[in-house]
Amino acid sequence: MIVVTAPTSTIGAQILENLIRSDKPVRVIARDPSKLSEIARARVEVVEGSHADADVVNRAFEGAEAVFWLAPADPKAESVMAAYVDFSRPAAVALKTHGVKRMVSVTALGRTTPLASNAGYVTGSLAMDDLFASTGVSLRALTMPSFMDNVLMQAGAIKNQGMFFSPISGDLKLPSCATRDIAAVATRWLLDDGWSGQEEIAVLGPENISFNDMAEIMADVLGKPIWFQQIPLEAYKARFLQFGFSQAMAQGMTDMADAKNRGLDLGVERTPENTTPTSFRQWCEEVLRPALAG
């Protein structure tokens, strides 16, 4: 049995779609099962509720051999550690209680750099990994840079203003990956029952790319001028506060962006094993352009 958390999230939904094509039994934890596709509801076992709830994870992990774990960062949490570590404590206990053999989690790049100690959400996610590692479960922590798909959060500004924004320098070339590639990597590990031990697996995309590079590619693909604008960290934080984030979580987003701007994501060397195939141009053609046309 493979358990999938956050099965209606961008990454989780793609993993679930991949797993449904296999012959493995699948169970999901879903707050709102109605958001699952009809195919998924007909194919998988559903445990309704939050994967922060001890009763829910105990029911879900019973008889499970592998778990996919993604912690949704609650924007209203009282702290980054509460959003990641405290959220995950019931699952850590349930892993041991039910003898789950393997876990694949989504986490962040940065552990190999000094910047990781004050990197907001990244610091929280790495502490979450340490919690799971302490249970003795065989773990593959998929360490991520920023997602190409995050660009979609600024779809309105790109479509209507021809602009997108970040506090990170427009000239800084950083790794960036597509969520469909993350899902493909996670699926491979979940379906493979021959591994053990604990390891971080970077998912870096095919190249390092700057926001200015992205703007040029988007302009070419969309057929109109697109500009990137760097904004101050204070303005970045203020936007999250306007969206209803708690002070701590808005600061966590800001600290993460500041650390990335200082090279947080550049501590892992790209290799054939951690290089995923989807280029930013391909992502723009196959995901961004249809999204803006819709």
Can you describe this structure?
- The protein has a domain at 2-148 and 177-203 and 270-276: NAD(P)-binding Rossmann-like Domain (Rossmann fold, 3-Layer(aba) Sandwich), CATH 3.40.50.
- It has helices at 10-20, 38-43, 54-61, 80-98, 121-133, 155-161, 179-191, 211-222, 233-242, 247-261, 280-293, and strands at 2-4, 26-30, 45-48, 66-69, 102-108, 138-144, 146-147, 163-166, 174-177, 198-202, 208-209, 227-230.
- α8 packs across α11 (280-293).
- The model has no long low-confidence stretch (mean pLDDT 96).
- It is an alpha/beta fold and 294 residues long.
- It has 11 helices and 12 strands.
- The strands form 3 sheets. The chain has a 7-stranded parallel beta sheet with strand order 3-2-1-4-5-6-10, sandwiched between helices. A 3-stranded mixed beta sheet has the order 7-9-11.
- The chain starts with a strand and ends with a helix.
